[in-house]
Amino acid sequence: MSVASKTRRVYLSGDLVPEAEAKISIFDSAVMLGDCVTESTRTFAHQPFRLQDHIDRLYRSLKVTRIAVGHSPEELTRITLDVLEANLHALESHDDCWIVHNISRGLLKHGPSAAQQNPATVMIFTDHLNLRGWAGFYTEGCHAVTSMSRAIPAQSLDARIKNRSRLAYTMADAEARLVDPDAQCVILDVHGNVSENKGGNICVVTDGELRTPTTENSLAGISRQTVLELAADLGIPVRERRLQMYDLYTADELFFTSTPYCIMPATQFNGLPVADGHVGPVTKKLLEAWSERVGVDIIAQAQRQLDEDQGVL
User: Fold this and answer.
1) CA 28 to CA 13: how far, in whole Å?
2) What CATH number was assigned to the domain covering residues 134-302?
3) pTM for the whole thing?
């Protein structure tokens, strides 16, 4: 297939345009202030996974941030599916994609009013889901490292609002990578409780029980919710509670949850092994159950991309 025939199209405030032509003003609130809510969904076998849950969370974020999107949830869902359909030709049969929503308050007008005065800027695009960098972590585990920076307190910005103001997370991630270039960050809140990762939630398994921070200080992740549901199906006890670094150091298993990789095992925490330093049985069971639920072998899909890069396939 030619490069031209694989060109993706982007939805931009009413128009479906070629990706290279998708541009917004430098005066858009997304650029000027990072004033933009977001959602990232992924597909499995080219079918969107839990899209309705992502749309529902997006509209909760829009309500709290007082952004008038100009579409009903049903209309935005239809537009989203149209964007996906328009871009499926750019995907190989064994690959999947992101579906990303970015919605800003629109063009800013100078003056005393903080109210939205222009239509929202609605951006929806798909992108190839690159899983290569995570392939080895499924079997070997990653290194979880605590950042120096702390999570923004909920009194300032509730973590349940999924937004594009990501500088605090980016800094925390960069700090963790000073310790290990391949590290995944563990961000604490101002009280020393475990919050979240740059782009995911954190779970531990201790004495057979799955434990994860409450949404007092972390995003109510869709992948996190999927793990809690799978655990319930498997008869694994679940508890949402405050966790501290001690709980991660002494856990039997530790893993992250996020849209692209679903579950990422961690076998080190701040240089110390998690339990025996191997991916644990509960984590493996949850990954297997997720693969069965979506009809895609999550680990094999990532490994296939890596093998292609290395010329194995």
Assistant:
1) 13
2) 3.20.10.10
3) 0.94
